[in-house]
């Protein structure tokens, strides 16, 4: 009985440390807006979205009036997406809420 308790404890400790270790090495994700110049071919946009998904990122939405998309990605993914085309470089900005009224700090 003592041996099996020790094995269970060892397994639990090992599993816990493994989960902590994997979380520590996972790249930080951030929500961004990726937009391209108007003359960017659809194929470059499609390639960028596929690169995001292949690297473990997520496409949160696609724009119709401008060429671009919203995504949750790591900085490493952004570097590779930005390097896809020399002539059609995307603009990348953090996705955040924008308002036109001054908000009262006490209401937040």
Commentary on this structure:
There is one protein chain. It contains three helices and four strands. It is of the alpha+beta class. The model is unreliable at 5-15 and 17-22 (pLDDT under 50). The protein has helices at residues 2-25, 42-54, 75-82, and strands spanning 29-35, 58-62, 68-74, 91-94. The protein is globular.
Summary tags:
108 residues, alpha+beta, 3 helices, 4 strands, 42% helix, globular
What topology emerges from the helices and strands here?
Layout: H1 2-25, E1 29-35, H2 42-54, E2 58-62, E3 68-74, H3 75-82, E4 91-94
Antiparallel strand pairs: 1-3, 1-4, 2-3
Can you give the helix content as a percent range? Answer: 40-55%
Order of helices and strands: HEHEEHE
Give the helix tally.
3
Structural class: alpha+beta
Mean pLDDT: 80
Q: What's the N-to-C terminus distance?
A: 56 Å
Beta-strand percentage range: 15-25%
Weakly predicted, low-confidence segments: 5-15, 17-22
State the major sheet: 4 strands, antiparallel
Radius of gyration: 21 Å
Summarize the structure.
With 108 residues, this protein is an alpha+beta fold. It has three helices and four strands. It is 42% helix and 21% strand.
């Amino acid at each position: 009985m003592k041996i099996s308790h020790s094995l269970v404890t060892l397994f639990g400790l090992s599993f816990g440390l493994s989960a902590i270790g994997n979380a520590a090495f996972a790249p930080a994700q951030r929500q961004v807006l990726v937009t391209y110049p108007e003359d960017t071919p659809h194929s470059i946009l499609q390639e960028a979205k596929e690169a995001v998904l292949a690297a473990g990122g997520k496409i949160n939405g696609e724009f119709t009036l401008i060429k671009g998309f919203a995504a949750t990605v790591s900085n490493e993914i952004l570097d590779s997406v930005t390097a896809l085309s020399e002539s059609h470089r995307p603009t990348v900005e953090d996705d955040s809420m924008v308002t036109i009224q001054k908000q009262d700090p006490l209401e937040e």
